[in-house]
Design brief:
By secondary structure, the protein is α+β, with helices and mostly antiparallel strands. The protein contains ten helices and 18 strands.
């Protein structure tokens, strides 16, 4: 067992005028815990392409997860997909990335733009073995990985970006590599990398994509725990236990809520300094306590973090907003979604009398629900979550 993890993030845009995306991504775990990601690009666009790519991704990922051979996967896909009436062919291109023990990647590519490997932010070539399965020429690679390595897969909508608009011949793979090297920052999560690259594709298309476009990134990271506490315990006698457990945990510490912050400062024997700056007028200002990495208000701040989290799961449209701001909600979002791999929630069940006013939109059940929903969002993006109630 090592102290590494595999971070997978992806994002798609539909061809202009289409309600369904012709690309599809599936991420599954094999019985040994190895993640398998399949990016499939269906022939054409619209409903048929969506069916082709979805079937391809689901068939391959399910078979790979059950340790079936590549030959069996490709043969099954070829015999299963419906035939396009106009072109007389039935296929979906695909890219498969399987990571074993967070140290080795097996990359299998059929007709998609070749995967880009970034090492220390610089493009790194890797060996490819060409093999024939049926009439399909497939490339297979085995890559030894190091912490910080990023594999970037894409559908061909990425290399067609800008054709006839901003670029004569589209955005070639070497241009994409140059862009990734220019914007790369070591702290970026896989979701952020895919979002930044896809946004650039959308801009090159002038906001009117000429093809379905999907970007997927797979990043090897050192595990990074972060601990978040919100609310004092329901039984005051459990306060010392809760705070002792919280501060004994490895990693950064976030404390949310006025009462909770005051109790934490007293426990540490430190003063709490409250800021009067409002980077966002809708979010209460943060405070500072020596020994705590971030101190914020409670329910209003966490509610905003949840809105950012729900967007992160979908189009990540709020990324530009929270990635550049310094209010409490934005800072928590960056810590949880960009830095953390393992998140420990310490949730106090004490009822705040101020929240029981029926005229206020906040109550105890809402606070509990916010934490549960946020934890669920974090699980969906591959974070390890542990929630302890007091």
């Amino acid at each position: 067992m090592n102290n590494l993890c595999t971070d997978i993030g992806y994002h798609s845009i539909n061809k202009h005028g289409e309600q369904l995306c012709g690309d599809h991504i599936e991420v599954v775990e094999r019985t040994d815990g190895s993640p398998v990601m399949v990016l499939a690009d269906g022939l054409g666009s619209g409903v048929k392409a969506n069916i082709l790519s979805t079937l391809t991704a689901k068939i391959i990922s399910t078979m790979m997860a059950n340790h079936m051979s590549l030959e069996d996967c490709v043969t099954t896909v070829a015999s299963t997909l419906p035939v396009c009436e106009k072109r007389g062919i039935a296929y979906s291109t695909f890219t498969i990335i399987q990571v074993v023990d967070n140290k080795t990647a097996e990359v299998i590519q059929y007709d998609n733009p070749h995967v880009i490997l970034l090492r220390n932010g610089i493009n790194c070539d890797y060996d490819k073995i060409s093999m024939q399965i049926g009439e399909k020429n497939i490339y297979r690679s085995k890559i030894e990985l190091s912490p910080g390595d990023v594999l970037v897969a894409m559908s061909d909508g990425a290399v067609y970006a800008g054709v006839g608009r901003t670029l004569n011949f589209g955005w070639q793979r070497e241009n994409i590599i140059e862009f990734l090297e220019a914007v790369y920052e070591s702290g970026y999560s896989s979701k952020t990398i895919s979002t930044i690259l896809l946004d650039q594709c959308s801009q090159l298309y002038g906001g009117l994509p000429g093809d379905d476009t999907t970007i997927a990134a797979v990043k090897i990271r050192n595990r990074q725990p972060i601990n978040l506490m919100i609310g004092p315990p329901s039984d005051p006698q459990d306060l010392h236990k809760m705070l002792t457990l919280f501060f004994s945990k490895e990693g950064k510490h976030i404390v949310c809520g006025g009462t909770t912050s005051t109790l934490a400062a007293q426990f540490l024997g430190k003063d709490m300094i409250t800021s009067i700056d409002y980077p966002d007028p809708e979010i209460p200002p943060i405070s500072k306590v020596e020994g705590i990495d971030l101190v914020t208000e409670g329910v209003i701040t966490i509610n905003q973090v949840l809105q950012y989290a729900m967007s992160y799961l979908e189009d990540n449209a709020y990324y530009i907003k929270w990635s550049s701001k310094k209010d409490g909600a934005s800072l928590i979002t960056k810590l949880l979604f960009e830095e953390a791999t393992d998140i420990n929630f310490y949730v106090g069940r004490a009822i705040n009398p101020a929240h029981q006013n029926p005229k206020l939109p906040i109550n105890f059940s809402i606070k509990m629900r916010l934490v549960d929903q946020l934890a669920d969002c974090l699980r969906k993006v591959g974070k390890r979550i542990n929630v302890s109630y007091f």
